[in-house]
Design a protein that fits this description.
single chain, 116 residues, alpha+beta, two-stranded antiparallel ribbon, 3 helices
Length: 116
C-alpha cells in the first residue's frame, strides 16, 4: 500500500530542492529523516516536512508499521512562476530583465518494505 504527501507551490526552485530528494530516494523512513536533518539546505527542510506528513498519513492506518516504510519515490517538479507585482533588475546594454520567482511541487510516496 502506498502513502502519499505533497507540497504544491513551494517557494523554492526545483533545481535547488532536487538534490535533497535524490539523497532520500530508496531509503527507509528513519534513515531518510536522519539524512535530511543533517543536510543544511532549505530544500531539505521542506522535503523533511513533506516526509513527516507522509509518515503521519501512514500512521492513520493501524495495520501499517511506520518503521517498515521506505521512500519509494521522491519528486520535485517545477511549478508556475509567481507573477504578482513583477519586479525588474538591470540587464545588459541598458535593458531590464524580470525577476523570476520560481515554485516547485514536492511529492513523496512511501510504501511498505517487501518481505523477502
Amino acid at each position: 500500500m502506498d502513502f502519499r504527501a505533497s507540497h504544491r507551490y513551494a517557494h523554492i526552485s526545483a533545481k535547488k530542492a532536487r538534490p535533497a530528494a535524490d539523497l532520500i530516494r530508496g531509503l527507509d523512513v528513519n534513515r531518510a529523516l536522519d539524512v535530511l536533518a543533517v543536510t543544511q539546505t532549505r530544500g531539505a527542510a521542506l522535503i523533511g516536512k513533506v516526509l513527516r506528513s507522509a509518515v503521519a498519513n501512514a500512521g492513520q492506518n493501524e495495520a501499517v508499521d511506520v518503521n517498515s516504510l521506505i521512500v519509494r519515490d521522491a519528486r520535485v517538479d517545477e511549478g508556475p512562476l509567481i507573477h504578482g507585482r513583477i519586479r525588474y533588475r538591470p540587464g545588459s546594454m541598458g535593458r531590464s530583465n524580470p525577476i523570476r520567482r520560481r515554485t516547485s511541487h514536492i511529492k513523496i510516496v512511501l510504501s511498505e518494505r517487501e518481505a523477502s
